[in-house]
Write a structure and sequence with these properties.
By secondary structure, the chain is mostly helical. Helices cover about 75% and strands about 0% of the residues. Among the domains are: about 190-280, Alpha Horseshoe (Serine Threonine Protein Phosphatase 5, Tetratricopeptide repeat); about 295-384. It comes from Selaginella moellendorffii.
Length: about 375
């Protein structure tokens, strides 16, 4: 067969491989009168991208000539499937490795939270690039290893916007707002992620004036940055400034920003915490208006506010009407309301549902025990 025909076959095979379909690549491969390294690699990629890792490994082992590209495809597939030990076995058996191979293994250890092997591998690498540094930086930040993250960040010769954003987010999310502010002010450029991280840091620490100033200075408070509106509304709500939170929510709607499920979680949660029953239902009605399907957290807010108001029957009705299986949060909220209102009968019923769950907070046992103990004391007093 002329070489041009093999090239054509490979083009067809590669095109099929991009669509997540394995049957057509298999059929095309079987019909080819001859194969080259490109053909085998395309078939391997088809299996790997579709998640057929055992078949992909068979192709890799069957290839008459292996190359690093094919091995890296298999390695990346193992990493994406969180099969760390399979990835390590393949990596250890490679006769040659590229920066892609090393970075894939870094990603594997980062995803699995194996910080020790991550640091060992980073030290063993003959060369690094920004992907290497940022992978490790992100892993340290996500697992609360701020000292390692700070050290690595200071050692990085090259940094990009991702590097700065990771470090800023690490400080902001762990309450080190001063350090986050230093990073923010030193950044050579900023994107929406950076603005939102700093805004979140101010909001979570209760620095509302700084949060609002930053919010007002943000260059893009449009549909792409609805998260900023949610963060600022949440900051007000968490600081018990419900009026300011609702005013900003109204401003959000007036500016044409589409509220999302997170927006309503923040709004309903703030109303529930303030015991504002009417506000909860007024904003609940807006869910349908904006085409937002009520999620579990929204129902939990309704259960909470009704329970706080002593409307236990209505709270229980909302719980029963949930189109989801009630979780520990919703049940625990109602159980707490039963304890506050000394409604032992209802508390026993809700407590039974809590105990049937596979996972629940140990504090629910204590709450239920205290509630039942109240009934015991009352009965003892009646007898006396």
């Amino acid at each position: 067969m002329p070489e041009t025909n093999l090239v054509s076959w490979n083009a067809i095979l590669s095109a099929y491989s991009q669509n997540g379909d394995v049957e057509r690549p298999k059929l095309a491969f079987s019909k080819m009168p001859e194969h080259d390294i490109v053909s085998w690699s395309a078939l391997l990629a088809a299996f790997a991208q579709a998640g057929y890792l055992e078949d992909a490994k068979i192709v890799l082992d069957t290839m008459p000539e292996k190359n690093l590209v094919a091995s890296n495809v298999m390695l990346s597939a193992y990493v994406q499937a969180c099969r760390v030990e399979d990835a390590k076995s393949l990596f250890d058996g490679l006769s040659e490795r590229s920066i892609v191979s090393w970075n894939a293994m870094l990603a594997a250890y980062a995803q699995s939270g194996d910080m020790e092997r991550l640091k060992e591998l980073l030290d063993q690498m003959p060369l690094h690039n920004l992907i290497s540094w940022n992978t490790c930086l992100s892993a340290f930040a996500q697992h609360g290893q701020l000292k390692n993250a700070k050290r690595l960040f200071s050692e990085m010769v090259d940094r990009d916007i991702v590097s700065w954003s990771i470090m800023l987010g690490a400080y902001a999310q762990t309450g080190f707002v001063g350090e986050a502010e230093e990073i923010y002010n030193a950044m050579p450029q900023r994107n929406l992620v950076c603005w939102n991280s700093m805004l979140s840091g101010y909001g979570d620490s209760g620095q509302l004036s700084k949060a609002r100033q930053l919010f007002d200075e943000m260059p893009e408070r449009d549909i792409r940055n609805a998260a900023a509106w949610n963060t600022m509304i949440a900051a007000y709500a968490q600081s018990s400034q419900l009026e300011s939170a609702m005013a900003l929510f109204d401003a959000m709607k007036l500016e044409g920003i589409q509220p999302d499920a997170n927006t309503f979680t923040v709004v309903l949660g703030g109303c529930a915490a303030a015991g504002a029953v009417a506000e909860v239902w007024r904003n609940w009605a807006l869910l349908a208006e904006f085409g937002v399907a009520a999620i579990r957290e929204h129902y939990s807010c309704a259960v909470d506010v009704l329970g706080r108001a002593g409307m236990l029957e209505e709270s229980e009705e909302v719980l029963a009407a949930m189109p989801f299986v009630p979780d520990d949060v919703a049940l625990g909220t109602l159980l707490g309301a039963c304890w506050t209102q000394s409604d032992v009968r209802r508390g026993e019923s809700v407590g039974g549902l809590v105990l049937e769950m596979e996972q629940h907070s140990p504090s629910r046992y204590v709450l239920l025990a205290n509630l039942l103990a109240t009934e015991t004391v009352d009965r003892t007093v009646d007898v006396l």
